Amino acid sequence: MLSAHAADAAVAFPQITVGMNTANTPQEFTNGVQVMIMLTILTLAPSIFILCTGFTRIIIVLALTRQALGTSSLPPNQVLAGLALILTFFVMAPTINKINETAWQPYMKNQITQQVAMDRALTPMREFMMKYTDENEIALFVKMSGMERPKNIQALPTYILLPSFILSELKTAFKIGFIVFLPFLVIDIVVASVLVSMGMMFLPPSIVSTPFKLILFVMVDGWYLVVKSLLEGFVR
Fold first, then answer.
1. Cβ proximity of 149 and 142 under 8 Å
2. What's this model's pTM, rounded to 2 decimal places?
3. Residue 29, in any domain of the structure
4. How far apart are CA 83 and CA 52, in angstroms?
5. Which range (12-21, 94-103, 163-172, 223-232) has the least confidence?
6. Are 121 and 97 in contact (CB under 8 A)?
7. Range of the domain at 203
8. Quick check: 50 and 56 in contact, CB under 8 A?
9. Total number of domains in the chain
10. Which long-range CB contacts under 8 A does 63-68 form with residues at least 24 apart?
11. CA distances from 219 to 6, 61, 142, 169, 216 (A)
C-alpha cells in the first residue's frame, strides 16, 4: 500500500495556463494573429462545410420527403443528418481528393507554404461551386456589390460566389422537393374527398392517407429514387 501511494504521489500533472504576453517582435505578433485566425476557421468549419458542399440540397430534399410521407419524426433527424453527411462525402470525394493531392500533402511535406496551400485548396472548391451556381444568382450579387462585371466566372470573387451558390442550392432543393410532394399530395386529396363523400368529416385524412403513402413509397423503392435523383443532380 505504501509503494502504491508513493507511485501515485510521483505522478506529475501538467499545468495549463492561458494568458497574453507582450510581443517583442512583429513576427511574434503575426504568429499570434495567425493562430487566432486558424482557431476561428476551425470554429466555423462545420458551417463552411455545410454551405460550400452539397449538404444543403441533400438535407432539404430528405426532410421534404419525410414531410411528404406524413411521418414527422420517422426517420429521425439523426438518421437524416447522417445519411446527408454520407451522401455529401460521396459527392465531394473527387474534390476532397484533389485538395489532398494538390494542397494538403505538399504542405505536410513542407513543399509549399501555408498561403499557397490555402490557395490550392480553394481552387477545387470554387470549381465545384461554379459548376452548380446559376447565372441569375451571380448577377444579383454582382449588382448588389457594385463591382464591375467580371470578364469570366473564374474572375468572380469568392465572397460573391459563395452566397450565389447557396441560393442556387436552395432553389434546386425546393424544386426537387416539389416534385417529390406531388404524388403524395394527390393521395391526400383523393383520401380527403372520399372521406367527405362518406360523411366521415371528423376523421383526420392523414390517418387514412399515411398508410397508402407508405405503401406507394415502398412499392416504388422511394429512398432509392430520391437518392438516385440527388446524386444524378451532382453528376453533370
1. yes
2. 0.72
3. no
4. 18
5. 12-21
6. no
7. 57-62+73-233
8. yes
9. 1
10. 64/173, 64/174, 64/176, 64/177, 64/180, 64/181, 65/177, 65/180, 65/222, 65/226, 68/177, 68/180, 68/181, 68/184, 68/185, 68/213
11. 70, 20, 47, 29, 5
Closest CA to 236 of 56, 48, 54: 54
13 part of a folded domain: no
32 belongs to a structural domain:
no
CA distance 8 to 10: 5
pLDDT, tens digit, 9 for 90 and up, residues 127-161 = 888 888 888 888 888 788 777 777 777 777 778 88
Non-local CB neighbours of 97 within 8 Å, separated by 6+ positions = none
Query: Number of C-alpha atoms within 13 angstroms, CB side, residue 24?
Result: 0
Give the relative orientation of helices 114-131 and 158-197 as an angle to the nearest 10 degrees: 40
Please indicate, yes or no, if residue 6 is contained in any of the structural domains.
Answer: no
Handedness of CA 218, 223, 226, 232 (dihedral sign): negative
Q: What is the pLDDT of residue 13?
A: 47
Alpha helices in 76-221 (DSSP H): 77-99, 105-108, 114-131, 135-145, 158-197, 205-219
Task: Provide the grid cell at 166.
Answer: 447557396
